[in-house]
Structures are given as structure tokens and as C-alpha cells.
TrEMBL record:
This is Phosphoribosylaminoimidazole carboxylase. Keywords: ATP-binding, Decarboxylase, Lyase, Nucleotide-binding, Purine biosynthesis. One of its GO terms (biological process) is 'de novo' IMP biosynthetic process. It is an enzyme of class 4 (lyase). GO terms for molecular function: ATP binding; metal ion binding; phosphoribosylaminoimidazole carboxylase activity. In the C-terminal section; belongs to the AIR carboxylase family. Class I subfamily.
Amino acid sequence: MEGRTVGVLGAGQLGRMFVEAASRLNVQVRLLDVGAGAPAKQICAVPGPSGSGSEHVDGSFADAAKIRELAAKVDVLTVEIEHVDARQLQAVLDEKLVDAVHPLPATIALIQDKYAQKAFLAEKGLPCGEFAPLEGAAGAEGQVKAAQEMGSRYGYPLMLKSRTQAYDGRGNFVMRNANDAPAAIAALGGGERGLYAEKWAKFEREVAVMVVRSSSGEVRSYPAVETVHRDNICHSVFAPLRTSDAGVPQRAREIAERAVATFGGAGVFGVELFLMPGGELRINEIAPRPHNSGHYTIEAADTSQYENHLRAILGLPLGSTALKVPSSAMVNILGLADLDKDAQAVAKTMAPAVASLAVPGATAHLYGKVGCRKGRKMGHITVVGQSDAEVRARLQPILDALDVATE
Ligand code: ATP
Ligand code: MG
Ligand code: MG
């Protein structure tokens, strides 16, 4: 069906699940990431011409030369992470080393800078809450003062964020009062990194919508889901989102579709939103790729986010985004400790996955990450059922195992 080869920048868990989808459609994939044992490379053997070695590229997705090396091997490039060298992606496109890069390098560059991303969305009329860059003198002292000025403007708690290189809350600092400013600036790079402030969102719940966009501009959203974060990291996802105001899920989808329609290029996007008391929705941020909040689509939707990403970037017809089960939930398996510090705690990390083996409707996904680190995403479990009550009941032994392991 498809003769073109796809190159992916990054070979972590998102790349791994993308490779699973690609392999079913017999689409060839080449991966760029550090190490021959990266999660996605483990399940995608591509021996070199002599029958040994590998056609994958070992190196950083932020390394211009490595991106060129990958580009020379493939027809279409995509990413599993936004922290890539977007300028080099534009260069290989301009030089016609590849036929296409999706999402567009310009979209990746825009999204990389969380402040620029929000300013762009706000300018397009999308609801984003209040935010502003930290101005003032460079260096720690100037930035401490600027953070305190933001505190006076927006009140406390105040959310300070790194503009770039942020993930899993690494790059966020919650200031409780003006005295927290020196610690906040120190934690966020000592005034060297570009920072911005967001007014605290007293949200009722967090919501996410996966959206797939074809290269011709067709936009399809998946049902809205509820995401639960602990310590800034996604803990669990419930699909579909249930609200007393039945209009909320549809409004979330409309906002997410409108937001993704403002970007060029094809692919899947993850739109994170805050549901405020009274039903108002605000965009938190957008990821230009498959997303943790869309893992559930593998078992619960007609077409998974990974397959739809593949179809979108290759210009194949998009698949249905409808749920094929009435209810589903996903729980992340996060590393409980660093491997070299507490082997006993590390051994407990997989307890929820073991518990899930006895649960009907549960599917465990383990990512094959080599080293366990505290808070690192090591796997996830999806549970499906005929009702929310059934899913909650099926989830319980898995959550119990998680609680016992974390005690
Ligand atoms: P990701 O791994 O999703 O890319 P990230 O490091 O980019 O995470 P954010 O999504 O900006 O971080 O924030 C992480 C979490 O922090 C959010 O899901 C939310 O729970 C909380 N948060 C973020 N911004 C605000 C805000 N303005 N007010 C209150 N809570 C917030
Ligand atoms: Mg983010
Ligand atoms: Mg986020």
C-alpha cells in the first residue's frame, strides 16, 4: 500500500507505539535517537546492507548532522518530541532531501516556545487565560524582580514557566508568595533561560483532546478526555470526559479543532485544556505529536492516534476517531526510584502492570526503557469496559497495586 519510508526524530515510547502502528500497515520506519537500545528501536529491526548493524541512526534529535543523516534515508520526516532542531528540519525540506516534514518545521518551532505558542493562539482568538513574558534585566537579580512584578500583577500562587525545553512539569515553578522568587529563578536556570508567567488557573478539572489534521487541512478530533496530573505529571486519563454540563466535551473539541486548524502541515496534535468552574475552557498547551492523553485510543478508538498520525503524514485517508467501547481509562506507570539508588523501590515499579494481567479489559504497555528513574514514564495500562462503573471496578486492583508500591 505504501512504498515510502518514514523517519522519526526520537525513539522513546511514542515512537515505539508509532512503530507498532506502522508495522501493521507494513510501512518502513527509520529512527533517530541516542543509543541502539532506545524503546522504539528495540521493536523495529532494520539490519544494514551487509546484514549486520542497523539502518537506524544513533545520535541526538537536536543534532543537525544526525538529522541530515536520517533525512538521507527516508521520504517523510516526523517527530515524537518537539525539542528537536526545527531549523535543520526546514533546511532538509528546502534542499528536497525529503518529500515532506510533518508537522511543519515552522509549527514545531512555534510550539517549542511555550510563550510564543500561547501568544499565537491568543492572537487567533483562542481562550488561553492570562500570561506574560518575564521582562526586566537579564541575570538572576533582574529576573527575581521581574517575577515579583508578575506576582503583583497576577496574584499568588503564580505559575512561572520556562519558555523552552519543558516536559512533565520540569520547567514549571509555583510561586506561593514574593519570597519564593529567588528559589523559583534558581530552579528555572538562574535567569539564563527565557521565562514567562501564567496567572494561576483554579481549574475544576483538566481536559485533553487529540486532533488529527490531514495535509489538505481536514481536521478531526477524538472525544474529549479527563486528565489527572500529580506533581505536574500525567497520572491517569478517563475517556470519554463526563460533565454535568453536557455541552463541555463538545466545546472542548471545537476549541481544539480550531486551534489545530491554525497550524499548517499534517499529523496528530494533543491539546491540553483547563475546565474552569462555570464551564469555561482555556487552552494550557499543545503538543505537535501523539500524546500521553491519547494512549487510550489504541484499545478504545476505531483508529489509534498513532495510526492516524501515520495516515496523516503519508496523505492516506484519515481513520475514524470514534470510541469503539463505551468507557476507558489509562494509568501511567512511573519509575518509583532511580535504579542506582533504591533497587527495591525500582522492583515495585511494575506492580500495577503485574496486577493488570488478571484484569479483564486491561492492556499493559511496557516501554523497555533501560534505566529506571524516579518519575520516568516506564509504561502504561489501558482498561476498557461497557460502562464507567465497570472501568472503575476493573481499574481498582491496578490502582491498589500502585498505592501499595508507592507506600
Ligand atoms: P507536558 O509534559 O504536558 O508537556 P509541561 O512541562 O509542558 O508538561 P504544563 O503542561 O505547562 O507543563 O503544566 C503541567 C501541569 O501543571 C498542568 O497539567 C497543570 O496541572 C499545571 N498547570 C500548568 N499551568 C498552570 C496554571 N496556569 N495554573 C494552574 N496549574 C497549572
Ligand atoms: Mg508541555
Ligand atoms: Mg502539559
